[in-house]
Design brief:
It comes from Marivita hallyeonensis. InterPro entries: Gp17-like, Viral_Tail_Comp_sf. This is DUF3168 domain-containing protein. The structure is a single chain. The protein is an alpha+beta fold. It has one domain: STM4215-like. It has 3 helices and 5 strands, in the order H-H-E-E-E-H-E-E. The chain has a 5-stranded mixed β-sheet with strand order 1-2-3-5-4. A hairpin with a 7-residue loop joins strand 2 and strand 3. Helix 2 (21-27) packs antiparallel against helix 3. The radius of gyration is 15 Å and the shape is elongated. 27% of the residues are buried.
């Protein structure tokens, strides 16, 4: 197993979301790898937890990465968060993301969970599954 491609995958996902016209039209530059301290925007996207599983075989090292992309909104309902979630899915599912290390073999949607948080915020956690190979 290797976790060596994890940072490159995270950077590639972040850049893909940041550069996507639809995601940007909905949240602007409010896409975070680390949520800033202080007053948060009313609507934003944050990269979340990740877990990795070995996918190495005779041909080389690789891993399956399951990671969350969260959409958080102060709106009274889920509609705005669902629109952003759809744009995130459109940007990432089957995306051809060039990585600084390794190679992205596949990137698929796995599941989502929508929930109300304290203080009335809405949160949708989108879980994606990526298959990567290490070329180093």
């Amino acid at each position: 197993m290797t976790y060596a491609v994890a940072a490159a995958l995270q950077a590639g996902v972040f850049e893909t979301l940041r550069d996507d016209a639809e995601v940007s039209s909905l949240v602007g530059d409010k896409i975070y790898d680390a949520v800033p301290k202080g007053q948060l925007p009313e609507l934003y996207v944050a990269l979340g937890p990740e877990k990795a599983l070995d996918a190495s075989d005779k041909t080389g090292r690789g891993a399956w990465h399951e990671f969350a992309v969260s959409v958080i909104s102060d709106d009274a309902g889920f509609q705005g968060a669902k629109e952003v979630s759809a744009a995130v899915c459109d940007a990432l599912i089957d995306a051809e993301i060039a990585l600084a290390r390794g190679r992205l073999v596949a990137l698929n949607f796995k599941r989502a969970q929508a929930q109300r948080e304290k203080a009335g915020r809405r949160r949708i956690d989108l879980i994606f599954r990526a298959r990567v190979e290490d070329d180093a």
